[in-house]
């Protein structure tokens, strides 16, 4: 078990991080050479878990173990294998590698329980040291459901600027969002790229056929680094996600009057940049406002960000004639987000009217908040707390005592809200019974070469997910997930 849950996943994360299109940094963008090599490597690791595997028309890598018995439910796991430019080794990749380790750990744990010696058969060891499970054996061990893992081809949207490309294909919403029309910087549409680079004869027909049948999926579970500092600050390895914040992106354009910096009097100016600066501070104040003064409660995780600013003409001796800036507003619940968006637009309009400068606010993006399923959350929390027994047989005493003590941390698994978007948002449109498990990362840093998850925390997340899967599809002790159509409540 130590090899399957500790040595292999940590070695595989390092190996995957070495597959890059750039020298000295990590970059895997959609359908690049490194992207294709990563897909091949992930397929091999899926085969080692006893999975049948294939790559679909948009590049998603699928691995599946179908239960030998007539089991109806399938637990869907997933994360993405593309990266941002100059990214880190764990964003996206962690969910895939931990998913594979958990599947293997679940199967090996069941084999050890069934055996008379409590040890694994020697024939499961491959010549390079990794454990390899035959497909027929893997299938025979699943009594209450199947397991399906998807490595999504593109979540970050670096090439086409359209996030969740892979997961929307699986959810069946790729055409709904008109993503085949998205263009890369060279002007090539996704439809043309699929034809020319992926050999897809008819992208529309192919996209329509990629959706998994929602009725066959009992739930979707995704493991991801927290990308924030909360878990590390509390000294805790894992957190259960209650929901993913909704997001609105605006682009504000302010048109002033361009002029000479030395000759136009201050009181006669219509400075687009000065007006924009006032708007930025007004928007920031909206999200900083205390609850007792009408602001959002802290648990709403309301955040407002201006991350991009374009100034024309951008010269030190010229009054700006035009300034544009982005606004990113996120909250756990949509009513709060929508209220703050309206207030932000009103604040912009008020500054424009008072300063006498024309303004325009374009709404670029809206994503509704997604709440995790209560039953999945409860089962995942229970599995994380129960991972102690697995870790005691997987890690050494020294490893267990690091980072404030892993075992103690599992006795108080917190519930968090994700401010970042994840593939779970796209999948939830087709599979509402969604859950996520966060893993702490050093300094809360992500989308950076400094991104880091301690090896013991990787193992802890794999052990928790293995226990969750075992309870769902092997032993059945967690029972079926309760759905909207009156399914039975999860029994823990």
UniProtKB/TrEMBL annotation:
Pfam families: M20_dimer, Peptidase_M20. It comes from the Eukaryota. Keywords: Hydrolase, Manganese, Metal-binding, Purine metabolism. GO terms for molecular function: hydrolase activity, acting on carbon-nitrogen (but not peptide) bonds, in linear amidines; metal ion binding. Its cofactor is Mn(2+). The keyword Oxidoreductase does not apply. Residues 246-351 form the Peptidase M20 dimerisation domain. GO terms for biological process: purine nucleobase metabolic process. The keyword Manganese applies. Gene3D superfamilies: 3.30.70.360, Zn peptidases. Homodimer. This is Peptidase M20 dimerisation domain-containing protein. It comes from Gonium pectorale (Green alga). The lineage of its organism: Eukaryota, Viridiplantae, Chlorophyta, core chlorophytes, Chlorophyceae.
């Amino acid at each position: 078990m130590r090899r399957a849950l500790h040595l292999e996943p940590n070695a595989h994360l390092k190996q995957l991080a070495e597959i890059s299109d750039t020298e000295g940094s990590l970059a895997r963008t959609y359908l690049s050479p490194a992207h294709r090599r990563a897909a091949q490597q992930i397929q091999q690791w899926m085969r080692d878990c006893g999975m049948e595997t294939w790559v679909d028309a948009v590049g998603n890598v699928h691995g599946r173990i179908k239960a030998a018995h007539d089991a109806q439910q399938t637990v869907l796991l997933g994360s993405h294998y593309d990266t941002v430019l100059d990214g880190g080794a764990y964003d996206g990749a962690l969910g895939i590698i931990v998913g594979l380790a958990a599947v293997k750990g679940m199967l090996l744990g069941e084999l050890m329980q069934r055996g008379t010696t409590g040890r694994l058969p020697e024939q499961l060891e491959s010549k390079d040291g990794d454990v390899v499970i035959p497909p027929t054996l893997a299938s025979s061990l699943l009594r209450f459901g199947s397991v399906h893992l998807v490595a999504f081809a593109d979540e970050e949207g670096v090439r086409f600027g359209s996030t969740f490309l892979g997961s929307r294909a699986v959810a069946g919403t790729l055409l709904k969002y008109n993503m085949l029309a998205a263009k890369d910087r060279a002007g090539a549409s996704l439809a043309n790229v699929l034809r020319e680079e992926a050999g897809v004869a008819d992208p529309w027909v192919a996209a329509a056929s990629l959706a998994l049948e929602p009725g066959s999926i009992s739930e979707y579970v995704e493991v991801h680094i927290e990308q924030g500092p909360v878990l590390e600050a509390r000294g805790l390895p894992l957190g259960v996600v209650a929901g993913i914040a909704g997001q609105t992106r605006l682009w504000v354009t302010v048109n002033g009057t361009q002029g000479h910096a030395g000759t136009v009097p201050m009181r006669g100016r219509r400075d687009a940049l000065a007006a924009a600066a006032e708007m930025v501070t007004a928007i920031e104040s909206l999200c900083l406002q205390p609850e007792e003064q009408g602001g959002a409660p802290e648990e709403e995780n309301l955040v407002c960000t201006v991350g991009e600013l374009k100034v024309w003409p951008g010269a030190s001796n010229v009054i700006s004639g035009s300034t544009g800036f982005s606004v990113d507003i996120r909250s756990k619940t949509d009513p709060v987000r929508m209220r703050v968006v309206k207030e932000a637009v009103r604040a912009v309009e008020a500054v424009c009217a008072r300063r006498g400068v024309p303004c325009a606010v374009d709404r670029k993006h809206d994503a509704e908040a997604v709440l995790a399923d209560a039953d999945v959350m409860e089962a995942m929390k229970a599995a994380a707390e129960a991972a102690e027994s697995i870790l005691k047989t997987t890690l050494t005493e020294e490893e267990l005592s690091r980072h404030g003590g892993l075992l103690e941390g599992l006795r108080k698994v917190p519930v968090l809200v994700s401010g970042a978007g994840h593939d779970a948002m796209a999948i939830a449109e087709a599979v509402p019974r969604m859950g996520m498990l966060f893993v702490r990362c050093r300094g809360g840093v992500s989308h950076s070469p400094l991104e880091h998850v301690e090896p013991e925390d990787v193992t802890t997340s794999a052990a928790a997910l293995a226990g969750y899967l075992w309870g769902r599809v092997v032993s059945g002790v967690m029972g079926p997930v309760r759905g909207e159509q009156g399914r039975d409540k999860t029994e823990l």
